[in-house]
Amino acid sequence: MIFYPRRKPYPAFAASGSGEYHSSSEDGERPGIYYIAVIEPEQRSQATQQSTLYHETYPGHHLPGAIALELGGKVHSIARYLWNSGYSEGWALYSERLAEELDLYNRPLDKMGLLSDQSARTVRLVVDSGIHTKGWSRDKALEYMLNNCGWSRIDIENEINRYISWPGQTNSYMLGMLEIKRLRTLAEQRLQARFKLKSFHRRFLENGSITLPMVEQVIMTWIEQVEVGNE
Predict the structure, then answer these.
(1) Of 66, 100, 143, 192, which one has the fewest beta carbons inside 10 Å?
(2) Cα(13)–Cα(34) distance, integer angstroms
(3) Structural domain of 125
(4) Number of domains in the chain
(5) What does pTM read for this prediction?
(6) How far is CA 49 from CA 73, 114, 160, 172, in A?
(7) Are residues 42 and 17 in the same domain?
(8) What is the pLDDT of residue 3?
(9) pLDDT averaged over the chain?
(10) Poorest-confidence range of 46-50, 102-106, 133-137?
(11) Dihedral (Cα; 220, 56, 85, 216), 10-degree rounding
(12) pLDDT of 138-178, one tens digit each?
């Protein structure tokens, strides 16, 4: 069973957030929750609402989180309950693009929001590196993002506060997605007509939240199994 998330506004103490997902309890008594940003709506763009939804819920964060809980004793507790950023955020960012493949965006504006979100994750590679290796100030990071991506000022300010306190985490989004796309392209090239996207996703998600090098080992093993006809 996959536990489907509820949507609700942030609690007051976190009301300035930009949207996030909290996983369900293992027994399903507490559903997964997708917190929607509602403060200062006039300062936020409609364009990125759908891409954020797919990133945070389904097929993004909610799906691997629910699957990990359902795996039970089949995987180590670390892979069920803890969170590897490259795996989790890489998958969620990949899911924004996957939603486009599935034709889930309703309007051209929503697709523009998808592209805006993807470009912002690229900009963050520069900003995080600037803050933690080049001595960038908060104001310089803010100016760079305002000039190079389409996010609203309120969201950028919240994001930069996170980047300052959590070195490297923001880089995991784009780096994780690029690794997933690399492995998918590799599998497509080697397996040709035998490549099945559903099987690729199953292999990616079947071990809980593991590191990207571990994911690579899983996918390479799967490719070899398909090549010799063992799947």
Answers:
(1) 192
(2) 16
(3) 6-172
(4) 2
(5) 0.91
(6) 36, 9, 20, 21
(7) yes
(8) 59
(9) 90
(10) 46-50
(11) 0
(12) 999 999 999 999 898 988 998 999 999 999 999 999 999 99
Q: What is the pLDDT of residues 193-205, one digit of tens each?
A: 999 999 999 999 9
Residue 124 has pLDDT above 60, yes or no: yes
Q: Are 100 and 194 members of one domain?
A: no
- My answer on whether 188 and 107 are in the same domain is no
**pLDDT above 90: residue 20:** no
- The angle that helices 138-148 and 108-133 make with each other, rounded to 10 degrees, is 150
CA 121 to chain centre: 11
Q: Does the residue 57 lie in any domain?
A: yes
Joined tokens for residue 192: 């040709």
Same domain, 159 and 185: no
End-of-domain residue from the set 154, 172, 190? 172
